[in-house]
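Predict the 3D structure for this chain.
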Amino acid sequence: MAKDKYTAIWISHTSISDYLKCPRAYYLKNVYKDSSTGHKIQIMTPSLALGQAVHEVIESLSNLPTKTRMEESLVLKYDKIWEKFSGKKGGFINLEEEHKFKERGKIMLRRIMDTPGPIAKLAVKIQQELPHYWISEDENIVLCGKVDWLEYDQESDSVHIIDFKTGKKKEDDDSLQLPIYHLLVHHCQKRPVTKASYWYLETDNNLTEKKLPDLKEAHLKIIEIGRRIKLARKLEKFDCPEGREGCIHCLSMEKIIKGEGIFVDSNSQRDVYILPHTEAETEVLDSIIL
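Done. Predicted structure below.
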């Protein structure tokens, strides 16, 4: 089959995670479209709003020369960006809850200002708006994803993959995030990758270095999952592992389809909804890794 990016199966860390947790959740988040708008649907939560706002501030720094990155207060940038997530747009049930989450983001950004670490060093910027490559041309499968930061080591002419974490939970050792990022960075720019780390912004001043995933093993593992996703889409078979009752990964999306959500925003691709939740449920949402 000739490669065609418009008919290709695009896979990413997020969509792969969705599929492995629950094929039904994968379908509702990545395939299903509202017949009235032609858009996919998304649920906004406080943790997601927090993560997106903090990441947007950090991403804006990657476009600046090293010497000028810290000239403007990151908290002031954050205040401007936060306006997009204020109130229902961020999934908040009241001002108190919103203030709690917003302050968490400010603490993270003040940490970066006080101990910038890799932010104050040279960085590599992949020129693709959405980094991607054909993980299998014959099978028409594309791997894509945005990597938070690539620190540049001038002495070895190599890069260090860094992923910023805004959640409280530590990433599992068997996570596919770093294997996927290693593949993307290897194929989307010319310099070798020599290190990979997480930065848990809420708790740590320093990076947590991880073992660099083997490229061959990563490729075999990811392409195998890609094939499973492609077959599921071809057969239109996306069953929840817990049956018709659903699971924690797909039930919230099912509620949106049933009309139980509150519409808050829309763009050219997705309609954004929130689900009413209690403060107790917020504590569960609070542990989501972004």
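The chain has nine helices and ten strands.
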